[in-house]
Each structure stands twice: as C-alpha cells, then as structure tokens.
UniProtKB/TrEMBL annotation:
PROSITE patterns: LRR. The keyword Iron-sulfur does not apply. The keyword Repeat applies. Residues 307-337 are annotated as: Disordered. SMART domains: LRR_BAC, LRR_TYP, LRRCT. PANTHER family: CHONDROADHERIN LIKE (PTHR24366:SF134), IG(IMMUNOGLOBULIN) AND LRR(LEUCINE RICH REPEAT) DOMAINS (PTHR24366). This is LRRCT domain-containing protein. Keywords: Leucine-rich repeat, Repeat, Signal. Residues 276-326 form the LRRCT domain.
Length: 337
C-alpha cells in the first residue's frame, strides 16, 4: 500500500502495470552441440535447434506428440533421449532425417506400438531403449536394418511372446533385456542369430519352462538372469552350450533340482539359487560339492525336502562332506536310503 500523497517512481510503476512474460523453458543456444531440457511445463518439442547439434535430451517433460519433421535440419544428430515424457505414438518418418543416430532412449513413455518403418534409415544405431512402455508385440520390421545394434532394452512392457527369428538381423547385439514382461514360454528360435550376445535378462516374467536348445544360438553368453519366474524344472543339457557363463541367477523360481553349465578353467560361476524349494537329495548336494571350487553360491538357500533336511542351508549341507550318500560303481551318488 502506497501512503497517501506519495508518487511511485516511474520504473516501479511500469513493473506494476506491465506483466512479466514467462521465461522460455530451456532456451536455445546458437552453435551448441548438445540441447538438454527437463522442464515439466514443456509441452512442445523445441524447434530451431542449430544444425551443429549432436545430442538432444528432452526428458521428464509434458511432450505428448512429435511432428514428422521434428528432427529435420539435424543431420549430425547422434543421440536422442526422450525418456519420461507422454509420447503415445511416433510418426514413421521421425528418424529419417537423422541417419547418423547412434543412441535412442524412449524409456517410460506410453508407446503401445511403433511404426514398421521407423528404423529403416537408422543403420548406425547402436543403443535402443524402449523400456517402460506398453508394447504388446515385437515386429521383425523394426530390426531389419539394425545390424550394428549392440544394446536392446524392451523390458517392462506387455510382451507375451518373442516371435521366432525376430532378432536374427541383430548380429552385433551384446545385451538383450526382456525382463518384466508377460512371457510364459520362450520359442526354440527366439534367440536365433544372436551369436555375439553376452547378456540376457529374462527376470520377472512368467516362464514355466524352457526348450532344451533355448540357449544354443547364444554360445557367447556370459550373464544370464532368470530370477523371478515360475520355472519348475530345467531340461537336461539346457546350459551345455554356455561354456563362457560367469553369472547365472535362478533365484525365486520353483526349482527342485539343478544342472550346472560346463566350467572351463577361469573365474568361479556366480550362482544365485535362493528362493527355490530345493530337494536336498544326494544328486543335488553332490553336484554342488563337486562344483564348490568353481562356484560362488548365494547363502540363505534352504532345503524344502526331504523332511529330515527341511530348513537346512543347501550350501552348508553340500560342503559338509559326509551326507550319507553312497557312490555307485560309476562314482555317482545313490539316493538317500
């Protein structure tokens, strides 16, 4: 309140009567090579980015749509990060003006599908993240031109199956994340063509079984995550092709028996078998005892049967030496009497 008779200075009066225009969120910088915006009030993908731009990060905003020409004029763009927006669809020609793109991150949007031709000019793409969307199916057309892709993450979607041969064009892929989907089974040809694959994550699906030759196409696999499924039994020889495996996570399934992958000389196998109803009969205990020098097993893994071993720790029993198991003529342990 201004005291009676007092006149406001002209500058202060101007500030009072002329509203301030809101600051433009994430202003552009001429000749910049990287544009970053995490302003929640941003609703429209910024235009007019300089042609020198190599990386664009528009994340945690309120952008809902992208125009087909949103990336026009950015011929050098190598990274596009669009995580945590409100995107429900993408135009098919969105990526066509940016053939140099190496990294695309679309984590945590609302994409239920992708256009068939979205990646038809993305032959240099190496890192593709589609995690946390609503994808219900994988389309072979997406991957036909992605021979250089090394990292693919389609976790936390609504995938119910992996079509046979769908990944065959991905001859350079090193990491595949299919975790936290709705997979109940895995087709025998689901991993066909992935000769270079080193990391496979199937955690948190609904897998009940696996085909005996499921991992035959991926002999270079080093890290395999199968925890949090509904596996009740593993086929004989399932892990036989995986002589390079360093980490195997089988925690929180319904397994009662185990077969280990081959162990050549080298680092021990990191194995998590916790949270399963193990049948601590002689075959399992003897297997773990023999593998002990090459095995790092999780503690807190308890026997569910037989009754006299229920609640005992599997690792302790397998290392105890005298388990009441009598070897037969071939050196194999006979069942408990």
């Amino acid at each position: 309140m201004v005291p009676p008779g007092q006149i406001l200075p002209p500058l202060l009066l101007l500030l009072l009567v002329v509203p301030c225009s809101p600051a433009t969120p994430c202003p552009l910088q001429p000749n910049a090579t990287r544009f970053v915006c995490t302003e929640p009030t941003l609703r429209t993908f910024p235009g007019g980015l300089p042609p020198t731009t190599l990386a664009v990060s528009v994340e945690f905003t309120s952008v809902t749509t992208l125009a087909p020409d949103a990336l026009a004029g950015l011929p050098e763009l190598q990274e596009l990060h669009l995580a945590s927006n409100l995107l429900a669809a993408l135009p098919e020609e969105l990526l066509w003006p940016v053939p140099a793109l190496r990294v695309l991150d679309l984590t945590d949007n609302a994409l239920a599908e992708l256009p068939a031709g979205l990646f038809q000019r993305s032959e240099l793409l190496q890192h593709l993240v589609l995690r946390g969307n609503r994808l219900r199916a994988l389309q072979p057309a997406w991957f036909g031109r992605l021979a250089r892709l090394r990292w693919l993450d389609v976790g936390a979607n609504a995938l119910a199956e992996v079509p046979p041969e769908v990944f065959r064009p991905l001859v350079s892929l090193h990491s595949l994340d299919l975790s936290h989907n709705r997979l109940e089974s895995l087709d025998a040809g689901a991993l066909a063509g992935l000769r270079e694959l080193e990391r496979l994550d199937l955690e948190g699906n609904r897998l009940r079984t696996l085909p005996p030759d499921a991992f035959a196409p991926v002999p270079a696999l080093r890290l395999l995550f199968l925890q949090g499924n509904e596996l009740q039994a593993l086929p004989a020889g399932l892990f036989a092709p995986l002589s390079h495996l360093h980490v195997l996570d089988l925690a929180h399934n319904r397994l009662r028996a185990l077969e280990l992958p081959p162990r050549p000389p080298g680092p021990p196998l990191s194995l998590d078998i916790s949270g399963n109803p193990w049948a601590c009969e002689c075959p399992l205990l003897e297997l773990l005892r023999r593998a002990a020098p090459q095995l790092v097993a999780a503690r807190g893994t308890l026997c569910a049967s037989p009754p006299h071993r229920r609640g005992q720790e599997v690792a302790t029993l397998s290392q105890a030496g005298d388990m009441g198991c009598q070897p037969d003529e071939d050196g194999q342990s006979l069942p408990d009497p």
